[in-house]
Amino acid sequence: MKALSIPVLLVIFWASLPAGFCDTDPQDVAALQSLMRGWQNFPSSWKASNDPCGAQWDGITCNNGRVTSMRLSSINLEGTISSSIGQLSELVYLDLSSNSRLSGPLPTSIGNLKQLTTLILVGCSFTGGIPQELGNLVQLSFLALNSNKFTGRIPASIGLLTNLFWLDLAQLSGPIPISSTTSPGLDLLIHTKHFHFNKNQLTGTLNGLFSSSMRLEHMIIVTTLFTFIRLFDNNQLSGSIPAELGSITSLQIIRLDRNRFTGAVPTNISNLVNLNGLNFADNQLSGTMPDLSALTKLNAIDLSNNSFDPSVLPAWFLELKTLTSIDIASGGLYGQVPNRIFTLPELQQVILSNNAFNGTLDMTGNISQHLQRVNLLNNRIVEANITQGYNRTLVLVGNPVCLDSEFSSSRFCSIQQDSIIPNVTSITKCGSTSCSSDQSLNPANCGCAYPYMGTIFFRSLLFADLTNNEHFQQLETGLWTELGLQAGSVFLSDISFTSDDYLQVKVRMFPSTGTSFNVSEVTRIGSELSSQAYKPPPGFGPYFFVADPYAHFAGEDDSGKPKISTGAVAGIAVACGLVLTALTSWAIFSFLQKRRTEELSGQTNPFASWGIAQKDRGGAPQLKGARLFSFDELNTCTNNFAENNEIGSGGYGKVYKGILADGTSVAIKRAEYGSKQGALEFKNEIELLSRVHHKNLVSLIGFCYEQGEQMLVYEYVSNGTLRQNLQARGIYLDWKKRLRIALGSARGLAYLHELANPPIIHRDVKSTNILLDDNFKAKVADFGLSKLVADTEKGHVSTQVKGTLGYLDPEYYMTQQLSEKSDVPTCTALALSC
């Protein structure tokens, strides 16, 4: 045991002072200390004082000695919320967003925070039901609980929150509660402008949710960029679309897609004259296609994949001059595609696939200069007149015109890739500057720094052309301007659509000075994004932000402890005598314990063996994010490695599903005796896995090297392997899903080849090593045969051939020369139809 440092002794000293020395109310101090005991990675400033208000703890704001605000977004908090949070009775603002390891149930005592106006828990891992006690928070105006692991129903008591302006819930099931004589319901929320219930499993109908009293309130209250938003996509809602919806004339965006709505679209939908975005896709709507000619502000419309009566393309489409995107795939349309539709001045995208259009396609004349994509896949078009020099996307595959020998060789008769999204911020001016793996190049000054990163999800985009830099330049400029950052210090990347038609944009934000943000800067930026204080440029629509945890805070020494402040120095002088006595006592105690500690370290420290033998020299693994698990921990979470927890096996050993103490599901790969590696090889593999992080790679959570065991602990990927889904499970994967899986796998491999330092070659790409998550996103797994490849002039390394026969690159097999090309997955490897 080491002697305690001076800062630690100061904590002991200040903790012993009477309450009169503290500026903070004792009840609030006790509540925060209880929260600290349940958390890891809380701000280091909390360790230096027992007085949150007087010492100005990071993330804590006070008024007259009472804690009124906790803004702790994106600081990598881990643990659960203590029920003592209910003691912070003057708390007005609570933001714990983007702390993905903050888990467990939400305590019912949160209902005691009667002064709370803002509650933001986006991007955490809270489980269980949403407590009914939230209905006690009558001052609440902003409630965002999406991107967690909540289950169960929407509490009816939320209907009592009559001051609510923003309501965002996800992962819930059951019907939407409607008020009755005995129970409140969400129809009472007449002031709520934003209902975001997308990506739930909600059932039932929307009948009764939109009352006539809503209309007047929403017409006169305009306090945000979007007057009124309704997002109900990706649920299991059924019944008809309620006619009451047409009475809310201030409505600007509505998404009801990917549900089970039936019947005709209400005719009074034409009353929504302020509507910018309308999405009714993937339902079972029938009857006549609605007349939207009065919606002169409409930008994007999607009516695809319904059961409307067969008809020609309605003439009113040709009069909506503001349209940027039209999608009526599988809409029962026939006749000739009118030439005028391609001349709409703002039009960027037309999707009319899987209809019965016939005759001649005429794309000549004054075609809109913004038009980037026309998809007429699987129609009955027999001729096509295309403006000479037209070089944008046009898909005519599946039409008779592509059987014409003169036209069949045209690129329009093949599936074309959309244009590559250009980089928005240019870093070419920085030359060949490179940074370490955990830093990035700051485009504002070409220096290396630790960026604050996250992903913005835009849930209803009002434009379709992602190749237009202007949109994203405005987004970048708005971010650094509104968030108070240095001009040019925001970098956007990985711009793409998700399977839910959300636009996701990876954002890197860099500090204005130095190489790191401090805690207060990170929590401020995270809170402004999660609370919607930042307003995106027109066209991007409503969004939510999920940040990556930030771990390189400025103002801390190498051990992660805060530098000693002036106040601390004064405290040392006052407490000098006490500290000296305590130091002497602890020094004697430490000396007596030293030998016993050294004797036990070889038994209790699983790293002790690394570095003893010559072949194992090098010390313990240098980890980046992975943690050490004891054998007992993993034995417990798998029920003694019970057979019913076994989810796979291979040459390495068996794989078990386990549930950690915090509720996290993991996959534990346990080596069998004959396949165990030497300590040095196992150490190298851990170091390799702990430093690669990508959405298309399975993440290493930790490992165990104890009692002769070699175990790797990975994130649990729920949908198993690609091979299982194609064969054993029998889940149908259509071509679109398979293509996404192939692209996701390729992105993971590209990361290993191009962004890992040094590059990594997988060497065993096959369908059993591609895992699929809940959304069928591909994650490359099993790096047991991976090879680190330093840059060489040859472009390859000579090595013994390893891998699975039938999946090996033939050139690698014959030449024994390993290169990045050796990882290019074949159709056989990914079990895709060639």
Automatic annotation (TrEMBL):
EC number(s) from the headed UniProt entry: 2.7.11.1
UniProt-annotated location(s): Cell membrane
Keywords recorded for this protein, A-Z: ATP-binding, Cell membrane, Glycoprotein, Kinase, Leucine-rich repeat, Membrane, Nucleotide-binding, Repeat, Serine/threonine-protein kinase, Signal, Transferase, Transmembrane, Transmembrane helix
Domain Protein kinase: 641-834
A molecular function GO annotation: protein serine/threonine kinase activity
Catalytically driven reaction(s): L-threonyl-[protein] + ATP = O-phospho-L-threonyl-[protein] + ADP + H(+); L-seryl-[protein] + ATP = O-phospho-L-seryl-[protein] + ADP + H(+)
A Gene Ontology term for the protein's cellular component: plasma membrane
Positions annotated to bind ATP: K669
Signal peptide: 1-24
The UniProt record lists the keyword Ubl conjugation: no
Chief localization: membrane
Membrane-spanning segments: 568-592
Highest rank taxon of the organism: Eukaryota
Gene3D superfamilies given in the database record: Phosphorylase Kinase, domain 1, Ribonuclease Inhibitor, Transferase(Phosphotransferase) domain 1
InterPro entries, per database record: Kinase-like_dom_sf, Leu-rich_rpt, LRR_dom_sf, LRR_N_plant-typ, Prot_kinase_dom, Protein_kinase_ATP_BS, Ser-Thr/Tyr_kinase_cat_dom, Ser/Thr_kinase_AS
Listed PROSITE patterns: PROTEIN_KINASE_ATP (PS00107), PROTEIN_KINASE_DOM (PS50011), PROTEIN_KINASE_ST (PS00108)
Topological relation to the membrane, as annotated: Single-pass membrane protein
Similarity comment: Belongs to the protein kinase superfamily. Ser/Thr protein kinase family.
Protein name: non-specific serine/threonine protein kinase
